[in-house]
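Troubleshooting: if your tokenizer reports a length mismatch, compare against these two reference records.
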Amino acid sequence: MAAELIASKSQADLSERIRQFLRRGMPSPVYAMGSRILDAAFAIKHIGLLGYWRVWRVNRSRSTSLLQISISSLLHPIWIRPGTSDLEELLYSTARQAYNTHVPKDRVRTIVDAGANLGDTAAWYLSRFPKAKVIAIEPDPANFAILKMNMEPYGDRCELIEAALWSEPGELWLQAESEHNAVSVTGTKTTGLRCRAMTMKEILHQYAPSEIDIFKCDVEGAEWQIFSQGDLSWIRQLRSAVVEIHDERSLKAVTDAFAALNCHPRIHRNLHFFLC
């Protein structure tokens, strides 16, 4: 997950301001414990007490077998990898339903999910908007494999792209991050795996109509490259966006790009929502 970035009062809603107040006022261990308790409460609500106990026990084990979970906010069960950040990500998107904080109020037909990971947000969007189609983009082969499994029940409602979103087409290299099993990309050659880089203009041309109803972007810091470099005219084709911010320069790049369209964020944790 991203480092904590504090929102201004004008940008954050009341619940977010309360959360920020508690985070600043509480000792870190107390706040972290409270957050885990909330995660457990939301999980029990959506998968039941026995279901949560089973998932918690298997997730703490050293099992290398995939674990399938049925959760009430999803149309179909979803697979996770025990011992990774999958369960935490799943609870965040489908139990806490963080992405439901600010969404378009009318019809939603086309969603781009950049940084789709295991498919938790894609599955949530497809369940939340039953007439929508998701274009899911993920560069990491291991993530892409489980993403493909989790999207199979949704059929042709999901288009899968094994690539990284970037400011220009070409080739990138994957690199593991230190926390949460995250994988980022870099344009500098490394010993990591290579992956294809695609731009939003390419994706719009090949896979999407002229308008994107929701653009979700969680790309482990690459948002700076995407929103500060190259042709940004594609932003005008978005009805809404939600971007997870990972550092201060990315925050400036993203907010400046949308401010040029007189579009300003509403903030929930590290998610910046733009209704354009």
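Reference record two:
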Amino acid sequence: MGNHFIGIITHFDLYFLWRCSVIVVTVIGTIAAIFTTMAFIPQILKIRRQGGEDLSYFMLLFYLTGVLLWLAYGLIIHAPAVIWANTAASILVAIALIMKAVYPSGKLSQLPDTRISAGLDGGVSLPPLTLQGGRRLRIAVDMDEVIADAFTPHLSIYNWRTGQNVTAEMIAKEGVESAIPAQFRPLFDAIPHQPGFFDNLAMIPGSERALQELSSRFDVFIASSAMEVPSSFAAKFQWLRTRFPFIPPSQIVFCGTKEILDADYLIDDSSRHFEKFGGTGILFTAPHNAREHAGLRVHGWDEVLELLPVKREAEESVASQRLVDAPA
């Protein structure tokens, strides 16, 4: 009887160990399925930011074929983890294929547009880092809503004077024309003309660091259509010299129309300035332009640095220098 009891315990232990091993294997398989499935999400996000030009159609098609075969295999053996993982993976790969086909050089931004988007007008071809003859590329950067936050005080003064409660979100969703009643438009338009309006504007987050990085690789010019508010010349110039002292006065341009600019890029919050501009226009998202469609759009200065080859070139330069310095 003792041996029989021991045999029961042994069988129980073996069964328990077997069940534990099955659970462990299932957990490992589930975690693996989650990671391999979710691994495609960063690629889709990258396509939304920068386009799918660098992705191979054959790779995506082969991958899609593979996950569909795995899905069929899971259905045949009735394996839930295999089924849901490969169903999700096939959907993600299909999304990547569609996005690559529709937006080869960038993404169609959401409504309202908020992130880098290129290719709405057939694709945007970015110039190389340097042109023939060794000339560095020139980047013209607008001031208001690109490096200087004029919108926040503008809206604050308007609300204080009218008793309204218009928010940046309302402007982004409805547009200025709808959010600002017609009877208040003259007052709204006159606010930037007030003395002192441009004296103490806050900097757009990340603009100082980004322009410093860009200045190390490009010729950076500040180009403001200051003729729209002629009284702002002195205040804008002083603001720029105080906040961006590394931009020399010779590279500060006040103008009426930006078609006269001889630059390779123009980063601006108004797409109308791109119509006759000879280079590549990059729309910098602001509440008032969220409903505009543009060939190329960025939301913040981090995306500018992602779009332009500053970080990549710097990393390649450091890597090259390490190879040179490495002992033989």
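Descriptive notes for reference record two:
- The longest helix spans residues 2-38.
- Residues 4-9, 106-125, 311-326 have pLDDT under 50 and may be disordered.
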